Amino acid sequence: MINASKSEKTLVLFVDHTNFLKGLREDVIVRPRNAPSPVERSAPSAAEASTSSTVLVAEKETMQNIQSDDSDSDDFEFYDSDFDAEDGDDDIFADNVDKSVNDNNDKELCDEHEDEDALEDDDLNLREEDRKHLKKKFTAFNPEIDMDNPSFKRGMKFSGVDELRKALTTYSIRNRVKIKKLKNDKRRIQAVCAPGCPWMLKASNDKRRTSGFVITAYEGTHKCEGSFPVKSITSKILTEKFMHEFRDNQKLDLKSFAAKVLREYKMCPERWKLSRARKDALLQIHGDEEGQFRLLMDYGQELRRSNPGSKFFLTTNSVNDPQSPDYKEHLATVYWSYDACKRGFLAGCMPFICIDGCHIKTKYKGVLLTAVGIDPNDCIYPVAFGLAEVECTSSWEWFLTNLRDDLNISNTSPWTIMSDKQKGLINAVQKVFPDAEHRFCVRHIIQNFQRAGHRGETLKNDIWAIARSTSVPKWHRSMEKLKVDSETAYAWIEELAPNTWVKAFFSDFPKCDMLLNNHSEVFNSYILEAREMPFLSMLETIFYKLLQRNETKEREAKKWPGRICPKIKKKLDKFIEWSNECSVSPAGNFLYSVSSHEFEKDYSVDFNARTCDCKRWQLTGIPCHHVIACCRKDRIDPENLVHSCYTIDTFNKAYAYKLAPLRGRAFWENMNAVPIQPPLFTKVMGRPKKNRKKAPEEKIKKGVKVFTKAGVTIHCSICGIADHNKKGHEKYLESIAEQIQNNIVGEDDEIDIPSIVEHVIPHTPNPSMDPTQKQDSMVYRMQDGEHVPINRLLGPLPENAFVASARDNIPHSRVRVTTASSRGNLRGGRGRGRTISPREQATSNAAAHQGNTSTCRGKGKKRSVQATGTGNTHFPDAPCAVRGRRAVGRGRGANELPDLNVEIFQDHEAQEVPLSQNAPADEDI
Fold first, then answer.
1. Alpha carbon of 860 to those of 795, 863, 873, 906, 907: distances in Å?
2. Residue 799: helix, strand or coil by DSSP?
3. Does pTM top 0.70 for this prediction?
4. 3-state DSSP: the chain helix, strand, coil percent, rounded to 5?
5. Handedness of CA 422, 426, 429, 435 (dihedral sign)
6. DSSP state of 796
7. Quick one: which of 98, 113, 820, 884 is 20 to 30 A from 872 by CA?
8. Interatomic CA distance for residues 457 and 127, integer angstroms
9. Start-to-end Cα distance in the chain
10. What is the 3-state secondary structure (H, E, C) of 524-546?
């Protein structure tokens, strides 16, 4: 065969079972050159076969002739000396290659088990005496493969006694038999089954030959009834068996865990075993919880190394250890932030910060304080984090001070803080962010409103209507409706400052009209899984969640069409639909009057100042339906009027900065710091609570609100105070007396720890680094892009343009000549402009000296009145106004007019005073 391969490329062996080739014509078959006809040889036929098969092979002589004749054929170019097979090559391969080595490191799975006397291939030709000696050949037990369903045989070798014990336990569980160990020590093991069962195993330590445990005697036959050895399923076995399940799903509940165990072993142990196994598995995954606190300084150094600009600092409390003379440093506070998140927040997010606290669900407790921003797509944007013992005024002041210094905020006026009405938050925000706008979550206001005794859907809807009022007229209307529904509720709401929870009084600078602190609640739910982990594992989980989120958000933005983000586009589409009910009247200069079917029917829209009377455009930066109706009138795309803080370009700026991954714990730099102990905690009775207490109206079951008596406040019929009844009145009085005697803090009183403020890291503010002064920050761009309304106060009316242009051609004033003056009739006429004669002047002066009176002429009787000035005199207290002539007297500054009940006679004309004929003619003035 080897020699034939030198000259021939292909050797074909035809096996013709149907005599196909025999029936072909001789001239159709193509044969090689100089090749004889094939020789037919029949294969051995079976008795039951109907047709014999014919095997066509070439004769030995024919093959030799082919080799000699075709030695100088045209196929010589296929011969390669490098592939020349010589004698002895197979021996060289066998001598230098170890077949037992697995180059791919793959696990060889064996589904079938060999018998006790199974022989290897190289032992098939052994003599009978060698076969007996072969039984003493040892077979190693492979725990990675054999431990799942172990089987034993004589001569099987184990690495140690623990491995054999574990294999016996697994064998007992898999085969449902009770294995009893008669002898169980470090040197030997003897195991038997139930009484009457022949199963038996003996093993001992064989140091001389194998240096391990070897089965010396084994009988594998069972004659006992099957049983359920549940006690053999220990928590340790469950932990090792299902470790990969807990790595994939650390939130695996006990019910699902029990189902997996039942499916695997066909029986299920007690619940406490399952709980202990899960606890041990999570401990192996995350490590020792107390030991993780000692690695915090190393983690902080690794975070600053991989992400320069990130902050991580902690403070401790020195506590005297009664068991040793030394003091131990227990963790008190931790503050950390990531440089990429801070830069992205300042570059692409509006100056709006949501702050809230959530509890850590480990045995050491603590409160996680978070600061969350809003990205251009109206989603969460985490900024900074902090850990404190409790949530109080000092802890919030510590966290907000570090946040302000970390973001280099010197001018707090552009910023807005959103929070719930938590203990200490109001005072802390006023102290750290004095010029910032502080808003309260309306949902928490409604909860306090209901705790005060104002319950009901009607009052709740009234509160929401007040909060959603975007204009002052709507706010007044909603307040009046609440007053009609409940006077006490109106009085309670009136005490709240409207600029903290009503849209009509919000600042329009941050371009956000949020009424709820939902972004903080969403982030608390986003890290819910991490809050149940040990502290260092929680830090790593939060870090990698944000690392993946930043990268995912950037990829999502590449698929968005248009100019603005998708969520903002949905809001704009809603306003576009509402705009169909509006009618527009253009006023020119980009001013419009819009009519709608709302409470205020007419609205004024100014494109130059970007304002609308409904104030939605100013608050959100998104054109309202009134503005969109004006855009439709002038064929303007409303997307161009959306504020730049909602564009996709701004979104890309917010997520342009990436977090660099951290190295493994083995690569962290050892800081050789003081060992940090866990925070001090007090162990309480009962199972630790992981879920917050929900109000009765929050309980929802199968999509329907469930109203039960749970959570309903009871009142005492004796004193009327809440939280106790008539039977517990005496105990309530005793508890009050005890609190007064021991100065115990009440439930509603704030627990403050002033020493936390001392943990603030000193910081020197740099005004040039303030976000309001940096051109690449979002606050600076929002300030620079403010639209100033056109000044419409034009001042006094100007001179007529025609008169001003022809001023040189204006003729001089002329003396007016009347008929009376031309005829010498110098009697004064009526009305304004008549010149008073010297006689009248003298008479008036005399009257003025006597009683400070003046003569009024007009319809009715002559009356002497006290002069108060020139011109017509009006009497507000009189039945009607008296039209008189120019009052003559003291002028301005006269005494106050007395109350005059002037009787007016409309039918009689006033008598006129005759003038002297010798008086000179009066010139018309």
1. 43, 9, 14, 6, 8
2. coil
3. no
4. 35, 15, 50
5. positive
6. S
7. 820
8. 97
9. 147
10. HHHCCCHHHCCHHHHHHHHHHHH
